[in-house]
Each structure stands twice: as C-alpha cells, then as structure tokens.
Amino acid sequence: MKITDEVRISDNGFVFNSRTGDSFNVNPTGLELTKLIAQGHDFDTIKNMFLEKYDLDDLTFEKDFYEFIALIKHHQITSHEDPLDFK
Amino acid sequence: MEKLKYDKPSISKINAGMPSKFGLPVKQKIISEIDGIKVSTLMEEYGSPLFVISEKTIRETHAEAKRAFETRYPKVQFAWSYKTNYLDAVCSIYHEEGSWAEVVSGFEFEKALSNGVHGSQILFNGPDKSKADLRMAIEHNACIHIDHFDELYLLIETSREMKMKARVAIRVNMDAGIYPIWDRFGFNYENGDAWNAINRIMLAESLELIGLHTHIGTYIMVQSAYAIAASKLANLYMAIHRKFDYWLKYIDLGGGFASKNTLKGAYMPGNETCPSFDDYAEAISNALISSEIPHENLPILFLETGRALIDDAGYLLTTVIANKRLNNGRRSMVIDAGVNLLFTSFWYNLGVYPTRELEHAEESTIYGPLCMNIDVIRDAIVFPQVKTGEQLVIERVGAYNITQSMQFITYRPNVILIDNDGKTQIIRKKESLETFKNSEINPKRN
Fold first, then answer.
1. Are residues A23 and B14, on separate chains, in Cβ contact within 8 Å?
2. Which value, to the nearest 10 degrees, does the dihedral of the CA atoms of residues B90, B95, B100, B102 take?
C-alpha cells in the first residue's frame, strides 16, 4: 500500500487529492499515521511506535488503524496492489 | 516518559460550496441525566437497553395542556388514550391528574377498570367491539363511541337483551382539510351517514345519545383542521337540538396533536414546527365558542390526546455494541435497542444523543441489534465517534413504543419510572425465559 502520487498532505492536516479533486482534513493522529504510511513503514513498526508514544492498547490501535486505512483507501488517498493484505 | 493522550485517527472530507441549509452546525446535545439521575447509574442498576419514564415530565406536560384549554373553554375533560401507553403506573398518573380513560378494546377496558376508573368515565372507541365487550360497557355505564352501522345494530340488540340503556356517541369522520381524509373510522359527515346514524340512535329506546366524537388523524401539524372539525360537530350538535329538542352532553375532538418529534422527510425539526397546546386550544375553543351553540348550552369538550402528552416523558437508554464502516465509507454503529422496541423509528427521525462530550462528528447510520435488514434506528445522523460500551439516550419515545413493542430474538427490557421524588422503580419487568414458558405449550409426542 502506498499514498497515491496525486495526493499532497500539508503539515497542518490538509489533504488534497488532485486525481479526484477532493480535499480532506485529518486529525493529528491521522496525519501521523498517513505520514508513517507514506514513509513506507509496515503495520508492526507503526503499531510499536504508537504504543510507545500514546496511552493505548494494541487491540484498540489495530481496530482504529484498519478502519482508518479502509477510509483513506475509500477516498483514493492510497492504492493497494494486493487488496487482501496490508504490507 | 509519560505517554500522550490518544485520539482515534480520523479523516473528514471537506465539502466546499455546500453549506448546511440550517447554517453552522450547532453544539452536540448531550443527555447525561434524567430528572437529576445519571444515565450511567440507571443503566448500572437496571441494565441496557432500558425504558425510562419521567413522572415529573408527565405531570408538567399534562398541566400545560390543561392550562391551555381550561383558560379558553369553560368545560374541559381529558381522557387518557390507553393505546398510547397503557402501563398501569403511567395510566394511574393521568387518572390522578383527573383524566378519564379512552380505550379501544375489551382488554383496555378491563385494564381501565382494574386501574380504578369508574365505568361511566370510560370512553370506548375503536372498530372492534365484540358482543361481550358491549355487554361489559353497558353494565359499567361507559360512553360507547359507535364506529359503524353493524356495531350500532349489535348494540341495539345487546342493550335490548340486557334491558338496559346504553350511553352512546357516534364517531364522525369528515373533510377537515387534512389529506388523505381518515374516513375508515366512524360515519361520514359530508355524505349524510353521520346524520342518518344519529336519527337511528334517537329512535332506539335502548340507546341514549350523549355525545359526538371525531378523530381527524394523527400528528396533525395544522391547528386549523381542529377548528373545521369542531365547527362541523357544532353544526351536528345544533341540528340534533333543532330536530329533537335535546342537548347532547359532550363533543369529543379525539387526539392527534403532534409531539415534538421530527417526522422523516421534514425540513425543520418538530420542536420548531409543531403547534403548541395553546395553538390547538385557541383553534378549538374559538370554533366552539363562536359557533351558534348558546353559551349556556356549550358541551363539555373531551380531549383524548396521547402522543403529545407522553412522548417527551419517555427515554430509551441504549449501549453501543459495535462500530462499522460500510463499503461506501460511511460510519455506522450497532446499538442494543432495535426497531422492535422503537416502532416510532419507522416514521420519526428519533433524537439519539451521547451522555458525554465526544468529538469527530460525521454522518453515520445507527442500526439496531436484530438480525434483520430493516433494523435501522437512524439512517443518517451526524454523530460523534463512540467506542463500544458507550451509553446513548434516545429521547421522546414515551408514546406507542412500549405498547407496540414486539418481543423478537431477545427479551424486552425493564421499564422504570422516576417518580416526583426522584426515586426509581421498575414498572414493567424485563422478560425472561419463564415469561414465555408460562404461556407456551409443547405437545408431548410419542
């Protein structure tokens, strides 16, 4: 999974997708996640970074992570080569 | 190092150029307590889901309606509409406030009697009155509101057999400017059916005509319809006097006043668009007082309003079971109260509220727990992020939901009353396996 080439993300959480013309706001944790995905980190690395930084348990993170991933995929912010897996 | 507070990651689409037609979004309403008792305390003690009835709201709303009518019309009598909510504890409050009983079946008639209502203070409506029901009504000297000619003749036959006089009124349907016209109940005014029925009753020695009744519809949002209905009944009232030199005792305008719930498809919320009790009272009282009825012979005005009196007093407390994303990206959640408990969710956009400040509101769908596709409590509501176990409150569910609730898949929940002193008590117990074992019979097989 990678952030599509047409998507630009500002440091204050504004996301613009020039392919669809849609723009979005992401909250700070959403922005952090998006940036980590853009940097190519895998799920386990991102999870460990979040668990270390935030007052959070692993199951809550996992639920929220995959919900967020599904949403940004729906908005065509990311593209997946393999629809069954997140790598 | 101390860990930072975690916020669920969220993303929201910006819809530039499409401002809300209602202006900027308002602050999310929160219901954290009912009559001073925390929602969490109630759910801890009585479980979830949980119906809560507020005695204070019942009495205050009733007082408001009474004041609206009694300050405008000299003789007013409310009759509690049993079908709206016939829990004994609820009916008893209305009877304490002076309401008679308005019933529509033999079962409701028996319930009213068991609540201590004198038979002569029961108005018996409805299209389904068996011979046994009519016998019971005649024996108790109730006011029988005749719905159709077959009932009229059955009543003549029954009262003759009993050698007793039945006190009756007729139900009149009419064009009151509300469409479609509710013409399936009672006798029509415009085509002369009502007048024919009146004449037949006046000829029957075993019947005593004492009133005229109409119920023009439900959730009537224009008070002028009641003015038209009151005028037409006043015309009949005077016609009876002119022909038979006889004054009836009452005119009954039925119910149908709108509650503050919002109908599906309505442009504005119900609490901003529905007439107040004052509006209805003004329309009805003016029509009767300005009719040709002499003031000294004005009839008693009966009102059978149910929905507008009790809807605000009922709450359903519920818990979030799950959050889901639908395949179109829309957020949805599953709560533990379904449409089997919330019959009114089929025509209202019920108000669903969190019990505490929550963030990241987005358009969501709220599903109930039933394994049925129709189990949708709200198909589109802007709602904040909630976790499983979050407690929510659904307001304005006092009317019809408890009486029309259906046992399905699981047990129906406790219903509690918060009394005037702020004390809580169960007024209908949660169902259990025993509830069903007691009424089911499983035939033995070889």
1. yes
2. 10
Q: Which residue of B has its CA nearest to A34?
A: B9
Distance between B360 CA and the closest CA of chain A, angstroms: 9
- Express each pLDDT in A33-67 by its tens digit: 999 988 889 899 999 999 999 999 999 999 899 88
Residues in CB range of B381: below 8 A, 6 or more apart: B349, B352, B363, B364, B365, B366
Cα–Cα distance between B66 and B383 in angstroms, integer?
37
* Phi then psi dihedrals of residue B399, to 5 deg: -100, 130
Tell me whether residues A75 and B329 touch, CB distance under 8 A: yes
Residues of A in contact with B329 (CB under 8 A): 70-71, 74-75
Q: Which residues of A touch B4 (CB under 8 A)?
A: 53-55
pLDDT of B111-168, one tens digit each?
999 999 999 999 999 999 999 999 999 999 999 999 999 999 999 999 999 999 999 9
B386-423 tens-digit pLDDT = 989 999 999 999 999 999 999 999 999 999 999 999 99
Closest residue in A to B13 (Cα–Cα): A24
* d(C-alpha B161, C-alpha B264), whole Å: 50
User: 3-state class of B370 per DSSP?
Assistant: coil
> Which of A55, A56, A71 is closest, CB to CB, to B11?
A71
Q: Do A71 and B4 touch (CB under 8 A)?
A: no
Cβ neighbour number for residue B259 with a 10 Å cutoff: 24
Chain B residues with CB-CB distance to A54 below 8 A: 3-6
Domains belonging to chain B, first-starting first, are 33-52+313-430 (2.40.37.10), 125-305 (3.20.20.10)
Structure tokens at B131: 């011979």
Taking CB atoms and an 8 Å cut-off, how many pairs form between chains A and B? 69
Q: Do A70 and B325 make contact, defined as CB atoms within 8 angstroms?
A: yes
Q: Where are the domains of chain A?
A: 2-79
Q: What is the pLDDT of residues B80-97, one digit of tens each?
A: 999 999 999 999 999 999
